[in-house]
Amino acid sequence: MKNTSYWFHLIAILTVIVWGTTYISTKVLIGNGLRPAEIFFYRFLMAYVCIWFFSERRLWSDNWKDELLFMASGLTGGSMYFLFENTALTITLASNVALILCTAPILTTLLYSVIHRGEKFKPNFIFGSFMAFTGVVLVIFNGGFILKISPLGDALTILAALMWAFYSLIIKKLNAKYSTLFITRKVFFYGLLTILPVFLFEPLRFDAEVLFKPVVWMNLLFLGIIASMLCYIAWNTATKKLGVLRVTNYIYFSPLVTLIASSILLNEKLTFVAMVGSAFILGGVYAAERGLKFKAIRKE
User: Fold this and answer.
1) Is 184 exposed, middle or buried (0-12, 13-18, 19+ CB in 10 A)?
2) 247: exposed, middle or buried (C-beta count within 10 Å: 0-12, 13-18, 19+)?
3) Neighbouring residues of 29: CB distance < 8 A, sequence distance ≥ 6
């Protein structure tokens, strides 16, 4: 590993730390009356407008197949991912969402193995995956039976993690042909495009009284400029340099930030069962990552 690669590891870590705080911002916006789809729309709209000034001016990819991949990336890593995540945040704890989303690396690996048949897993991966999903069960049990929270939010979070797994594999394919800025801009564009059908059922609102509240526009700016534009560029750059599986495994740092921030800022209760579940998820993801045997990807 070259010394310069450590910078990309640092970029990935800083990105997931920022993403760990986004659950708090989204919760704040929901508390101020914004709907899940609206939060996503305003967030990605700001990110798209800003990135337009920095990215290349080309509109289309090289062929229609790549254009469909870009649309899929905007759907999976944009509209569907955030619709599931933001909706989950209206129902369950921010810490639950952050923890369950940690399963994204394992889901990414499983999807990769389905697409590329013949890949082998070490016992560490099997044990780590079982451990992580046991932790998910504990987190869901903690919310549903101890804190009396609807398990629907946790189910939506699992779907969000699955969307991110698909997104990671799509981005890996696009990274081989296109620049990071172009990819990121296209993800924002198709994310905005694919969220529009939702507004046929819940029309987009522009309530100036709500949007111009300092707490609202400051959190939207944070989500749109820092957490979306800058972090998506950083994430896609790190993915291109280090490989999708290695970078995706940094996601398990994110809930540690969320657990601390949600406890301090949202007064979310952290029970013993939730702590055990957290340890199982984080430990399981780490153990699973150590058990991967994807030599081709490791060489990226």
Assistant:
1) buried
2) buried
3) 39, 216, 219, 220, 223
Query: Along the chain (300 residues), what's the average pLDDT of each consecutive run of 10 residues?
Result: 71 88 92 94 92 85 94 96 94 84 81 73 74 77 64 89 92 88 93 96 88 93 90 85 75 76 78 77 72 40
User: Which DSSP category does 117 fall into?
Assistant: T
Percent of the chain with pLDDT over 70: 88
Domain residues for 294?
8-298
H or E segment and range at residue 291 = none
Assess if residue 109 is contained within a domain.
yes
Rounded to the nearest 5°, which phi and psi values hold at 129? -65, -45
- Residue 102 near residue 286 (C-beta atoms within 8 A): no
Q: Are 262 and 94 in contact (CB under 8 A)?
A: yes
Cβ neighbours of 300 (radius 10 Å): 17
**CA 244 to centroid of chain Cα atoms:** 13
Q: What is the C-alpha separation between 113 and 51, in angstroms, rounded?
A: 34
| Residue 144: strand, helix, or coil | helix
Is 2 a member of any domain?
no
Angle at which helix 104-115 crosses helix 123-141, to 10 degrees, equals 130
Domain count, the chain: 1
List the one residue out of 248, 195, 220, 171 whose CA is nearest residue 80: 195
The pTM of the full predicted model, rounded to 2 decimals, is 0.81
Q: For residue 203, give every residue at least 6 positions away whose Cβ sits within 8 Å of its Cβ, in sequence order, or none.
A: none
Residue 61 lies in a domain: yes
Is the distance from CB of 235 to CB of 15 less than 8 angstroms?
yes
Cα-Cα-Cα-Cα dihedral sign, residues 109, 223, 52, 9: negative
1 in a structural domain? no
